[in-house]
Amino acid sequence: MTEARTQRELIEESLGFLFEAELLEEIIEVGKVKSLESDQILLDTGDDLLYIPFILDGAIKVSRDRDEEELLLYYIESGDTCAMTLQCTVRKSVSEIRATTIEPSRILMIPIMYMEKWMSNYSSWRRYILESYHSRMTELIETVDAIAFMRLDERLEKYLVDQAKLKGSLEIKHTHQQIAEDLHSSRVVISRLLKQLETKGRIQLYRNRIVLSSI
DNA sequence: ACATTAAGTGATT
DNA sequence: AATCACTTAATGT
Fold this sequence. Notes:
Layout: H1 2-15, H2 21-30, E1 32-36, E2 41-43, E3 51-57, E4 59-66, E5 69-77, H3 83-86, E6 98-101, E7 105-111, H4 113-121, H5 123-149, H6 152-167, E8 171-172, H7 176-182, H8 187-199, E9 203-206, E10 209-212
Antiparallel strand pairs: 1-7, 2-6, 3-7, 4-5, 4-6, 8-10, 9-10
Helix pairs in contact: 6-8, 7-8
The chain binds a DNA duplex through helix 8.
């Protein structure tokens, strides 16, 4: 009882400003809230796309992975959805990305069968989907730019700043190894570059922890 | 005290 | 910028 109430409130709070009341009711009706700890895989490469996930709170990173290699593509936060899953409106398919929680997160899962119906019935839904697609595309291009045109040290600094903004804290609790994986580099290289940034006074290094001097 | 894991570094490609 | 090989430091048992 109270469970359902809280869930309704949670959904209204996170998504209420996005959709008209009628659609919101439908969303509350058919959506299931999934709670995940930090560092859990929400969706993995090769998984069938059965649900559209909406991030209610927390944050998620979307990365490409081949064999054991990984590369961070972009983050999704509260109010966002994953563009990858949107293509299932057109065609039933499997995921080509991995979505991992980077904070304890609650995600609203909506079966994909509603996609098409809502597309034709609700203008707020159409607008949301198109805008969402657009902003994911923009972020993806930003990432491509970073890989193509920035040196690794610049990319690392951008990564740290992005992390800090995302968490709302200058403290980043990652190992050098984890950062290396996100940037698709090696631990040794990241350690060296971090050391340089520390010498320049941009950061302070500790075990499992990096503190940014400023954003 | 010991083992394990994270981080630092010189040398080489 | 990556890899190897090794050292040093921090942390858990």
